[in-house]
Amino acid sequence: MKKIIFLILLLPISVYSQNITSEVDSSWIYSIINSFFDSLNHINKSEKLDNTITLLSQTNKFNGVILISQNSNIVFHKAYGFANFQTKVKLTTNSIFELASVSKQYTALAILKLYQEGKLQLKDSIEKFIPNFPYKKRTIHQLLSHRSGLPDYYSFTWGSWKNTDSMMTNKDMVDIMCKRKPKAKFYANKQFEYSNTGYAVLARIVEIVSGKDFGDFISENFFKPLGMKYSYIRTHEPKNLLSYKTIGHSSGKGCRKENYLNGCVGDKGVWTTTGDLNIWDNALFSGKVINDTILKLALLPKNSEMSLEKNYGYGFRLGILYKGVNLVYHGGLWGGYNTLFIHRIPDNINIVVLSNVDNKSFKYQSVKWIGVLEQL
């Protein structure tokens, strides 16, 4: 290290002795110097982040994988703890997690891709695609922005799905809804209320419009083209990735059991890694998934009665961090998985936190992590 620093410090002297003094001629030297000290900066950032997160891990407040990147450059990527507490298999940076509600962005983008292709309109009623849908005047826009008032499918399918050892599909869920007609929570567009049912219905609409299974549509349009080789929908689990799959745990570290609701996707059901989610994020915000106009539409607040500091677009929560910095983010909690995705718009900072333990204590640490990045 001392030799490298010594050589870098000598570079300006050697250039000066050769009379190469113009700004153009010597710019490459400063580029080398800046690159060198940037690398030291990243080392310092990683050490500070690691110290913070290691403390959480050692006090049983975090078990998972964290990735932090800026402008597509990975600043920090590390795994802490176990993929399975019973077998003591350790996590790696290629471990695969259930994204839980962070999955909703993929459902929203699938709908928006079909919209971009002219195959549906955001003002279309759900009855256009599901003729016997029992809730009138609900639109795709309302489902995307959580303003539909649809009842919770976790509740109304209970008792209707007799064989709980088999997976209930999105079609099954919609069929039960249309048959039982459970009471809506409120009239269409009256208010914002977070709805898993809405996104499960949207996934079914993707299937109806595209003529493809939801898992196939997401894989063919997003995962494969972007090179997300560790990503899949729960209903399409590839055998070659089973060794990377983690097990969801309760806060007491007991393994979560399989649930018949896992077969219903769109509100959840995307399995991926921190690295693949970072690939997705970089592609999305560089216009490689949908065009910029439609992306901006997805990131506009859709709830006028809510503050700009806490709102929702299409598949993304929208917020403002300290210093007025805009954030796109989402959290998830399902089946022993606790997840967090943050994209800071002005400087392209991504924070991806995937945990396979029901433990929320790490959730509010992300502001501190961004603070570490800003201090250096």
Question: What characteristics describe this protein?
Answer:
376 residues; alpha+beta; seven-stranded antiparallel beta sheet; three-stranded antiparallel beta sheet; 12 strands; globular; disordered N terminus
Describe this structure in words.
- This protein is of the alpha+beta class.
- It is built from 11 helices and 12 strands.
- The chain has helices at residues 2-17, 23-58, 104-116, 140-144, 153-156, 170-180, 196-210, 214-226, 274-284, 292-298, 366-375; strands at 64-70, 73-80, 82-84, 89-90, 97-98, 232-233, 270-272, 310-312, 317-320, 326-334, 337-344, 349-355.
- The strands form 3 sheets. Strands 2-1-12-11-10-9-8 form a 7-stranded antiparallel beta sheet, with helices on both faces. A 3-stranded antiparallel beta sheet has the order 5-7-6, covered by helices on one side.
- Strand 10 and strand 11 (337-344) form a beta hairpin.
- Helix 3 (104-116) runs parallel beside helix 7 and helix 6 (170-180) packs across helix 7 (196-210).
- The longest helix is centred in the N-terminal third of the chain and has 36 residues, at 23-58.
- The radius of gyration is 23 Å and the shape is globular.
- Mean pLDDT is 86; it is low at 1-26.
> Count of DSSP E strands?
12
Q: Determine the oligomeric state from the structure.
A: single chain
What does the main sheet amount to? 7 strands, antiparallel
**Radius of gyration using CA atoms only:** 23 Å
Summary?
This protein has helices at residues 2-17, 23-58, 104-116, 140-144, 153-156, 170-180, 196-210, 214-226, 274-284, 292-298, 366-375; strands at 64-70, 73-80, 82-84, 89-90, 97-98, 232-233, 270-272, 310-312, 317-320, 326-334, 337-344, 349-355.
